[in-house]
Specification:
about 240 residues, alpha/beta, Rossmann fold, SIR2/SIRT2 'Small Domain', 2 domains, 6-stranded parallel β-sheet, 10 helices, 9 strands, zinc, cytoplasm, EC 2.3.1.286, NAD-dep_sirtuin_deacylases, NAD+ binding
């Protein structure tokens, strides 16, 4: 039996699946990740992306932060791919309990998923640091310089920058769903970013599935490893 056949059997027999995903889920929608060969780390900027996307850089070089952010982080024309759509279908059928994502692009919601736990926030939520008024991603994309609120305050994306902590409520919810899951499917992540990658330690079941194009540090802990593009795998199994 192939890996995809085994996964199909497990999915068909379960109504308690949780999906944990990273940048590889969105690369098939044309959004570059940080660590792949084609990712942002292999392009040339005045500063490395990790530096630009840090709290310190945002505070000290806000205009330069926004130049990079508009250019590289706001892929507002991207559409959900097969993985996003199939996960939304599994949720609609009552099989998938939650999507836990490291991505900030909102594509899971665009595909129809309802229970999406965004560990690193979302580009679609932006708030005034002075009055709290909310702005959408289009407002940021179309602004110039440092985007300002009607009150004159500075607008900040509701994304978790390097040096910032994850939202505790979101983390606790992710721990709850992962710890209760029968099947945990991890897809499109190198499992290199902590504390998010540490969530895997809360899984107690025996159907841990890793779907990624390359090997991960947790492959030997998995009950099933499939090395392939995640959209392709979901099209075959769902």
């Amino acid at each position: 039996m192939t890996g995809t056949e085994q996964l199909k059997q497990w999915i068909e027999a379960s109504d308690n699946i949780v999906f944990f995903g990273g940048a590889g889920v969105s690369t098939e929608s044309g959004i570059p990740d940080f660590r792949s060969v084609d990712g942002l780390y292999h392009q040339k900027y005045d500063y490395p992306p990790e530096t630009i996307l840090s709290h310190t850089f945002y505070m000290e070089k806000t205009e330069e932060f926004y130049k990079f952010y508009r250019d590289k982080m706001l892929a507002l024309d991207a559409k959900p791919n097969a993985a996003h759509l199939k996960l939304a279908e599994l949720e609609a059928k009552g099989k998938l309990k939650a999507v836990v994502t490291q991505n900030i692009d909102g594509l899971h919601q665009a595909a129809g998923s309802k229970n999406v736990l965004e560990l690193h926030g979302s580009v679609h939520r932006n708030y005034c640091r002075k009055c709290g008024r909310l702005y959408d991603a289009s407002y940021i994309k179309e602004s110039t310089g440092v985007p300002k609120c009607a009150c004159g305050g500075q607008i900040k994306p509701d994304v978790v920058l390097y040096e910032e902590g994850l939202d505790d409520v979101t983390m606790q919810s992710a721990i709850h769903f992962i710890s209760q899951a029968e099947i945990l499917i991890i897809g499109g992540t190198s499992l290199a970013v902590y504390p998010a990658a540490g969530l895997i330690d809360f899984y107690k079941g025996n159907k841990l599935v890793l779907i990624n194009k390359s090997a991960t540090p947790l492959d030997r802990r998995a009950d099933l490893v499939i090395q392939a593009p995640i959209g392709e795998v979901f099209q075959q199994v769902c």
